[in-house]
Amino acid sequence: MSHFSKSGPAPTRRTLLRTTAAGAALTTVGLAGSTAAHATSPVRPGPRIGILLYDGFSVLDATGPAEVLSRLPGAEVTMVAQRRGPVRTDTGDLRVMAERSIADVDRFDVLLVPGAGARGTTSTIANRSLLEWIRKVHRHTRWTTSVCTGSLVLAAAGLLEGRKATTYWASAPYLESVYGVTYVPERYVRSGKIITAAGVSAGLDMALQLSALMAGDTTAQALQLALEYDPQPPFDSGNAAEAEPWLKELALQLLAQSQV
Amino acid sequence: MSHFSKSGPAPTRRTLLRTTAAGAALTTVGLAGSTAAHATSPVRPGPRIGILLYDGFSVLDATGPAEVLSRLPGAEVTMVAQRRGPVRTDTGDLRVMAERSIADVDRFDVLLVPGAGARGTTSTIANRSLLEWIRKVHRHTRWTTSVCTGSLVLAAAGLLEGRKATTYWASAPYLESVYGVTYVPERYVRSGKIITAAGVSAGLDMALQLSALMAGDTTAQALQLALEYDPQPPFDSGNAAEAEPWLKELALQLLAQSQV
Q1: CATH number for B183
Q2: What is the pTM of this model?
Q3: Of A28, B35, B66, B95, which is most buried by a Cβ count within 10 Å?
Q4: Which residue of B99, B255, B259, B260 is the best one to mutate when testing the A interface, meaning the one whose CB has the most A CBs within 10 A?
């Protein structure tokens, strides 16, 4: 079922832990995971998850869901881009490696398209080969998903026609007016096999919901605990529907100034 | 004040947006940020933030705070590792580029040490040159921070002696018994200029609090809105203090099985 395998035989955790006293102690207190995990047979192949990177993507849009989905039993997460190699984020500070090019692979169980600032979004919704690749992959996915302005990219690829979807709060009028999509201001919105998430951090919530859909509620609940996702932001300012106009303006200023 | 500058003159957002009709539309609806942002003079240098990558780190530990802190006015986020180049995450699926080596740089306003699985944590707490670098950088930071088992690394570097701190829930007994640190089961714990965060996703909450400390509550509130951080996880299972033992066991199994 899997197109890619992790290269070469990896040392088992048990082997690694036997080599140091610290490792033994870590096992004892749970850092290394339960010994029961090591006693089980190898995990069967799980979902193959492809995350599309492109110049100017927002790092958390891609890596938040990657953190969650990579823990699904047997899952493989592959970062894909037009070309293999490092892909720069919107701030220009970070680069994440694309391990495959779109020419290398066109089958995934899950496709995820992250969002970006204006530069990354405008160039991607005008990139015909990327949009064609998205359409091709989408034909065979179990789930096609997006985070933030990634839903504009799905819309540009023609996948959201007649659907409801969410996106970054400031991009909702664009999604509605340019693509005729019905914007639903929720954390994530499912329409058939397409799930769109709201801005940036919403990818975490969406990925947990997607985990529940693929592996069941119990596994998703355990994943949430595995990532200690018991959010306690210091403020209550993350919901645009309740934000004052001046705070929205400041938020957009901070974004614009941080982007290259 | 800044040791690093983004290389070369970047085109302004205004330039980029003028080139496409789509860009203009994006500006209108706010995706590109407010026009007011473009009218302001260049942002003065802000905090230089160094995030230490090492083989086996957990991607969200590093990229969650990077997403937040990179939006602080004038901020520069630099990924640093023992050697420049791609650094592999705990699952082996992802690689993030370290743009500087520890030999290149030893001054940051903020140092952040992410956590890892057993492999990454055990090798890092035994890596004398990394620990020495952390001590050297810490002497001049405004804030020294960690996420998840990153606090074990700070402890191994000798920075948490006689302090209270937090860490990944399953690693708390290790932090207490091996390093004599007082574990406080909170989302993030400040002790002097050191702030430790709980597991993985807690780095987001900590980074927002740190943003408030550095740039004020209003800026931090706007950042939270900029990232649409209005968390709505599908379950209420992320708090280890309230979790059943079997769910903790399952969470640790999922982690162990996902790591290479």
Answers
A1: 3.40.50.880
A2: 0.87
A3: B66
A4: B255
